[in-house]
Amino acid sequence: NVYKDIADLLEDENYDDGSYGPVFVRLAWHASGTFDKKTRTGGSSGATIRHAPESEHGANAGLDVARRRLEPLKQKYRNISYGDLYTLAGVVGVQELGGPTVQWRPGRSDKLADACTPDGRLPDAAQGADHVRDIFYRMGFDDREIAALVGAHALGRCHTNRSGYDGPWNASPTAFTNFFYTELLENTWVQKKWDGPKQFVDKPTGAFMMLPADMAFKTDPRFRTYIELYARDQDTFFNDFSAAFAKLLELGVKFPEDAPTYRFKTLD
Q1: Tens digit of pLDDT for each residue in 136-158?
Q2: Which DSSP letter does residue 252 get?
Q3: 27, 44, 184, 266: which has the fewest Cβ within 10 Å?
Q4: Mind giving me the DSSP string for 52-70?
Q5: What's the gap between Cα 208 and its chain centre?
């Protein structure tokens, strides 16, 4: 069972906060988030994120770690495409860290390096609400779906040797929760004093961080409506995230007519 084998790869006390779950979610999202609805290019089908130059794009720094971790399973399950493996790993990461069930379908095919998407299709964390909308509207998402997807920042942390930013968003970076929203709204955020790129830290401890693009969800009135909703209602967040993430993973994919739809049970 591929799901179980991926789940067995998650825990590693020597990696980051003890789990590969967050970086698997990021791999699935970055493999899928290159889709352009006008040209019908990009997306998870093709798994072009494993080829240069796309693998070298700044937004994808550090994702080689996730691909290397999953490679033995590609060799074990020869019939699974890289696109299916990477997106399923994202589903496993969400579910096994306590998030909602995300429905998933197999059927992606792999492509060569000539299908790599141009740089600039993924969000730039230094930008504001207009940029965020430009990126996600290009994929076909609306404001509510965008606000739900950013909640995945409850997971993981930033690394100075990858994005240049530093730190986790909250105190439980290996648990899928609505904490991104509660922290964003309830904590006091100040600009970090350091030599790195502009980011924000919580005033009380300086231990947690927000990116400039994260702060836009607090300051933009339309986004803020959904941020407040998800901060007070984790069930609604889980439902909305599950639907938006499943949609993200399927952008641009031409599934076989007989492709089954799976809703995997967690291993617990």
Answers
A1: 999 999 999 999 999 999 999 99
A2: T
A3: 266
A4: TTGGGSGGGTTTHHHHHHH
A5: 19
Q: What residue type is assigned to position 191 of the chain?
A: Q
**Burial class of residue 115 (count of CB atoms within 10 Å of its CB; 0-12, 13-18, 19+):** middle
Own/partner contacts of 187-194, CB < 8 Å, gap of 24 or more, are 189/215
Q: Provide the H-helix boundaries in the chain.
A: 2-8, 21-32, 64-76, 82-96, 129-139, 143-149, 179-186, 212-219, 221-232, 234-250
Q: What is the DSSP letter of 189?
A: E
Indicate the residue type of 79: N
Active-site residue identified among 29, 30, 51, 153: 30
Q: Kindly name the residue from 29, 104, 169, 189 that is annotated as catalytic.
A: 169
DSSP conformation class of 262: B
> Does pLDDT of 268 surpass 90?
no
Q: Which residues contact 57 (CB under 8 A, 6 or more apart)?
A: 119, 122
The pLDDT tens digits of the residues spanning 217-250 come to 999 999 999 999 999 999 999 999 999 999 999 9
